[in-house]
Every structure is written in structure tokens, then in C-alpha cells.
Design goal:
The complex is a heterodimer of chains A (about 180) and B (about 160). Chain A has about 180 residues and is an alpha+beta fold. Chain A has two domains: about 1-70; about 80-170, Alpha-Beta Plaits (2-Layer Sandwich), CATH 3.30.70.60. Chain A is built from three helices and four strands, in the order ααββαββ. Chain A has helices at about 5-70, 85-95, 130-140; strands at about 100-105, 120-125, 145-155, 160-170. Chain A has a four-stranded antiparallel sheet with strand order 1-2-4-3. In chain A, a hairpin with a 4-residue loop joins β3 and β4. The longest helix of chain A is centred in the N-terminal third of the chain and has 70 residues, at about 5-70. Chain A is rod-shaped. The N and C termini of chain A lie far apart (about 90 Å). Chain B is α+β, with helices and mostly antiparallel strands. Chain B has two domains: about 10-85; about 90-165, 2-Layer Sandwich (Gyrase A, domain 2). In chain B, about 60% of the residues lie in helices and about 20% in strands. In chain B, a hairpin with a 2-residue loop joins β1 and β2 (about 120-125). Classes of the chains: A alpha+beta (about 180), B alpha+beta (about 160). At the A-B interface, α1, α3 and β3 of A face α1, α2 and β1 of B. β3 of chain A pairs antiparallel with β1 of chain B.
Chain lengths: ~180, ~160
């Protein structure tokens, strides 16, 4: 290589170096800086996510405990698809306790802070012992309920007790 | 040993300059290559972080939704359990059972009505003494027993009324 060729090569390589710095290194550094700041956000988000995952785990554990507690409760709230079941239970306990039963649905009076529920009017006809038995069984039905009023009268002529029970059964829709 | 450089001074300078140009070519080439590699490295690492960012955002959004759903279910369940703990609410059944247990023989209940104010019972007794006995038993069983004087007016075939709470 002669002297001039070396000089041209030196100048050319200098220009290439400049081009690399201007169009390669500088944008790469700028981009890298931006990404680095973004990365710190991502890292922060990841930490937050980890904390959230931890709290989700705790929430799921507590939720399971609550589900166990709910399953151990003697009462449960009536689901939509159990409406017929509750009517069948009334009929069944009337049958078991030797009473005749008439079931009617009725309008629920709802006062402030009160849950509406499903209201039933049960007319029970039978002996006094049968009435006691019916009441006992009624208090043990698995659904959360409240006997709002009870009215019993003795009909001398037939020798039977006629009881009208106004009952409210609470549903899952009442408690949310 | 003594080394003697016999190259003339002007030639020495020319050689030195040539040597510097050659060195410049070498340094430039090495630097350019190194910087190309460094730049490529920066680009690649930047892109990998950039690719992760939307993934983290998606995961975060999914986790947020899941937490919201679980929290909602948890609150509903908690409210339900709190509500279920208030049961049983009325104690008519227990009241009627208690009354039936202390009912003297021959005494019959003819009417029972219960509301939030208490349980009202009406009945018939063949004589006054059994009404008094029933009243005494009721007072032992219940906190509050309301017995009107009219219960004691007749000595036989007595119709009585009690309100218990």
C-alpha cells in the first residue's frame, strides 16, 4: 500500500467510525436510556404484581375458610333453583307431623334495612301435638327463615287446631 | 550493544507520520467494529425489555380483574355469613313448646297468636286453680307474663288469656 492509500483508508475509516457513532451508538444509547427507565417501571410493576399475587392468595385462603364456615352453618340462603324444594319441604314436614297444609305465597312487607325474601302463608290443620311437631320441624329447615306471625285457633266442632304461619324465607338475592 | 540509526531526520519524520496514519486506520477499524457490536447489544437488550412490557401489562390487567372478582365474591360470602349468623330470629317455636310443657292436664289452648310484641295465648280451664298454676309456671319460664284479672273471675270453666315475652 502506498502512502496515499493509507491516508485514504484512515480518512474513510474515520468517517465510518463517525457514522457508527452518530447513527448507531448514539440512537442505541438514547433508546437504551428510555428502555432502562421503562424497565424500572416494569420492575416496579412486577414487584407490585408479586404483592398482589400474595394478597390474592390470602384472599383465596380466607374465601375457602368462609366457604367452610358457610357450609357448617345450619342455615343457608335459598337459591333460585331451590324455590320448589322449600315448598316440598313444607309439604313433607306437614305430612310427617300429621297435619294438613295449605301453602300460599304472599306479598312481603319490607321495612327499612329489611331483606324482602320470599313470603309464604302456611295454614296448618291438625292436633296440638301435630302443631308442635310441625313447628319443631319448621324451625329445623335448612333455609334461613323467620316466622313473622303465628296464629292458632282451636276449632271445637272438629276438635282441630288451625294455625296460620306467616313465614319469610331469605334468598341469595337478598344478601349481596 | 549500541544501536545506531543512520536514517536521515527528514525520512524519520515521514516514516513516523506514515506509521501514525496506519495506526489511525487500525484504531478506527477496531473502534468501529467494537461500537457496532456495542450498539447491536444495546438494541437487542432494549428490544427484549420492550417485548416484556406489554406482557407485564397484560398480566397485571388479568390479575387486577381476578382480584376484583375474588374480592367481590368474598364480600358477598362474608355478608351472607354475617346475615346467617342472625338466625334463628324468632323463637315462637320454643315459646309454644315451653307453654305446652307447663300446661296442666285438662287445660286446653284455644288460640295462640304471635307477633313481635310477644305471644298471646287464650285457653279454657275446668277450674281457677289450674289457671293459677299455669300462670305460676309461665312466670318461671318467661321474662314477662301479662295476666289480666279477668282470668280469675270465674271459679269453673274459666277462659283465660296470657301474653308472654
Amino acid at each position: 500500500m502506498n502512502k496515499n492509500q493509507v491516508r485514504y483508508m484512515a480518512i474513510a475509516s474515520g468517517i465510518i467510525l463517525l457514522v457508527v457513532v452518530v447513527f448507531g451508538l448514539w440512537p442505541a444509547l438514547t433508546k437504551s436510556y428510555e428502555i432502562a427507565s421503562k424497565a424500572s417501571d416494569v420492575e416496579e410493576a412486577s414487584f407490585f404484581q408479586l404483592a398482589q399475587e400474595e394478597s390474592l392468595k390470602e384472599l383465596l385462603t380466607s374465601s375457602k375458610e368462609l366457604q367452610i364456615e358457610a357450609s357448617e352453618s345450619p342455615f343457608k340462603l335459598l337459591e333460585d333453583d331451590e324455590r320448589l324444594d322449600v315448598i316440598r319441604i313444607f309439604e313433607s314436614i306437614a305430612n310427617v307431623s300429621g297435619n294438613e297444609i295449605e301453602i300460599a305465597t304472599s306479598e312481603c312487607d319490607v321495612e327499612e334495612d329489611e331483606k324482602p325474601g320470599l313470603c309464604f302463608s302456611l295454614t296448618i290443620t291438625g292436633s296440638f301435638a301435630g302443631l308442635l311437631n310441625f313447628n319443631e320441624n319448621l324451625s329445623n329447615i335448612p333455609f334461613a327463615h323467620n316466622i313473622e306471625t303465628i296464629n292458632t285457633r282451636y276449632r271445637k266442632k272438629e276438635g282441630v287446631y288451625i294455625t296460620v304461619i306467616f313465614l319469610r324465607v331469605y334468598t341469595t338475592q337478598d344478601v349481596g | 550493544m549500541i544501536t545506531v540509526n543512520l536514517i536521515p531526520e527528514s525520512r524519520k519524520k515521514t516514516l513516523m507520520i506514515e506509521h501514525r496514519w496506519r495506526l489511525a486506520v487500525l484504531v478506527n477499524a477496531i473502534l468501529a467494529t467494537a461500537l457496532i457490536w456495542v450498539s447491536a447489544g444495546f438494541y437487542l437488550s432494549s428490544n427484549s425489555i420492550k417485548d416484556r412490557t406489554p406482557l407485564v401489562d397484560t398480566e397485571k390487567a388479568a390479575l387486577d380483574t381476578r382480584i376484583t372478582d375474588v374480592k367481590k365474591d368474598f364480600d358477598v360470602l362474608e355478608n351472607q355469613i354475617k346475615f346467617l349468623k342472625t338466625f334463628p330470629q324468632s323463637n315462637y317455636t320454643a315459646f309454644i313448646k315451653k307453654i305446652s310443657e307447663v300446661l296442666p292436664s285438662g287445660v286446653r289452648l284455644t288460640n295462640i297468636s304471635g307477633s313481635l310484641e310477644g305471644l298471646n295465648i287464650k285457653g279454657e280451664s275446668p277450674d281457677r286453680s289450674r289457671v293459677i298454676s299455669l300462670e305460676e309456671s309461665l312466670r318461671k319460664e318467661f321474662d314477662e307474663v301479662d295476666a289480666p284479672l279477668s282470668n280469675l273471675v270465674k271459679s269453673k270453666d274459666v277462659e283465660f288469656v296470657f301474653t308472654v315475652k
